[in-house]
């Protein structure tokens, strides 16, 4: 028998909420084609799994390993592997780096770690590539240098607080236990002290909250910070990712959509669904790009 809360995760139910939004509030021109509303509803249903204990549905060995570290009170290692996961994606490149550089080793000598990345860029290229959201996915000398600097900036950011646990505990304490304010504080701090893409920072902090490593939660969409998110929102409401729509208008529409979907759909859920949908539907292929 289906539990009442499970109803909100069923694709037909989500489709009905999207249809109501389209009819009563604002046209979802990006979902006007055959089956497109169902496709987007499926992304929302998949993203909504974050409302359930992750152990109940994950088959991802990396997330399983992160959870194992966390249960063993190895929070630093759990967060380090999670950061690499959010930065690199599912790739042999991640395994090649993490097998050689645990958090303890990388934190103890960030300069040596940085040099290792650069010196071993050819071997790392053979191990795998970065995920699709990176402009240059294959590892070469330039990409290795940039990646090494990004990793070092993350290590330095955490090290200034002592440990990951201390950093997250401090953020929650200064926010007086308010999860969305703590999230914002950490995101602002990351922007000040690290140099990698903002979507990686948001993905990382969302997962920190989802895995209950820290009591933080995404409280706004940050549409102006993540180009893919903005393009996906434009696509959803206007039918084209390049349509000019003010970020403030997009934000208001997203808040209304969230209310229409109901309390089971947090900002983090809608953010994740838009990002995943955007990767498949919005990212244009440059016709002048050639692979050699």
How would you summarize what this structure contains?
The chain is mainly α and 292 residues long.
Structural account:
InterPro entries: AGPT-Pplase3 (IPR041271). The chain has helices spanning 11-24, 36-47, 61-71, 75-88, 92-100, 103-108, 110-119, 121-127, 141-159, 164-174, 179-193, 198-210, 227-238, 247-261, 267-281. The chain has 292 residues and is mainly α. The protein has two domains: 4-52 and 220-281, no CATH class; 54-210, no CATH class. Helix 3 (61-71) runs antiparallel to helix 4 and helix 11 (179-193) runs antiparallel to helix 12. The longest helix has 19 residues, at 141-159. The protein is globular. The N and C termini lie far apart (55 Å).
Q: Output the helix-strand order.
A: HHHHHHHHHHHHHHH
Query: Taking Cα atoms only, what radius of gyration do you get, to the nearest Å?
Result: 20 Å
Q: Helical content, roughly?
A: 55-70%
> Regions with pLDDT < 50 over 5+ consecutive residues?
1-5, 284-292
Kindly state the number of beta strands.
0
Strand-residue proportion? under 5%
Structural class: mainly alpha
Shape: globular
What is the typical, i.e. mean, pLDDT?
Answer: 89
Task: Measure the end-to-end span.
Answer: 55 Å
Number of helices: 15
What number of structural domains do the residues give?
A: 2
Report the biggest beta sheet as strand number plus sense, adding barrel if it closes: none
């Amino acid at each position: 028998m289906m539990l009442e809360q499970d109803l909100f995760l069923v694709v037909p139910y989500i489709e009905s909420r999207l249809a109501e939004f389209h009819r009563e509030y604002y046209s979802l021109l990006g979902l006007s084609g055959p089956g497109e509303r169902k496709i987007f509803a499926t992304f929302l249903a998949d993203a909504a799994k974050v409302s359930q204990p992750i152990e109940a549905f994950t088959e991802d060995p990396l997330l399983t390993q992160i959870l194992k570290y966390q249960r063993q009170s190895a929070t630093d290692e759990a967060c380090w592997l999670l950061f690499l996961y959010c930065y690199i994606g599912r790739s042999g490149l991640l395994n090649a780096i993490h097998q050689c550089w645990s958090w303890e080793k990388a934190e103890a000598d960030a300069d040596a770690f940085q040099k290792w990345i650069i010196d071993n860029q050819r071997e790392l290229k053979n191990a795998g590539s970065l995920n699709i959201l990176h402009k240059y996915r294959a590892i070469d000398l330039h990409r290795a240098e940039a990646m090494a600097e990004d990793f070092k900036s993350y290590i330095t950011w955490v090290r200034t607080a002592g440990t990951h646990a201390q950093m997250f505990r401090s953020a929650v304490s200064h926010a007086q236990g308010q999860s969305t304010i703590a999230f914002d504080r950490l995101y602002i701090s990351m922007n000040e002290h690290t140099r990698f893409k903002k979507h990686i920072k948001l993905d990382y902090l969302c997962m920190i909250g989802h895995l209950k490593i820290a009591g933080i939660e995404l409280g706004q969409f940050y549409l102006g910070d993540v180009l893919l998110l903005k393009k996906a929102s434009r696509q959803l409401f206007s039918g084209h990712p390049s349509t000019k729509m003010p970020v403030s208008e997009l934000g208001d529409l997203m808040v209304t959509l969230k209310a229409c979907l109901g309390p089971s759909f947090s900002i983090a859920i809608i953010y994740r669904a838009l990002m995943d949908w955007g990767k498949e539907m919005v990212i244009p292929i440059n016709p002048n790009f050639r692979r050699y």
